[in-house]
């Protein structure tokens, strides 16, 4: 399985942002429920990417990246919910949403290209 450093690096950096975001929500905003959800799903993306890179087959690789994609979409949901319930501002949400949407695009592209390579 080819190691996709861009995805690995971006998902790791995003996880760091999410951990810091969680600390901000917990310490500054006194938000304890949704912050745990975004922490779990946001850090899980990189974990699933790491697992995918060690996949036992192309199908395992696709499966793990598909889970990472689901976690990324869930993370976007929690960020939007935090914004729309006034825990964070539009500006605070925008940067995180752009980051997670970039990860989603990368994940979808890699999943599609890997599926196409199996069909050949």
UniProtKB/TrEMBL annotation:
SUPFAM superfamilies: IVS-encoded protein-like. InterPro entries: 23S_rRNA-intervening_sequence, 23S_rRNA_IVS_sf. Pfam families: 23S_rRNA_IVP. This is Four helix bundle protein. It comes from Chishuiella changwenlii. The lineage of its organism: Bacteria, Pseudomonadati, Bacteroidota, Flavobacteriia, Flavobacteriales.
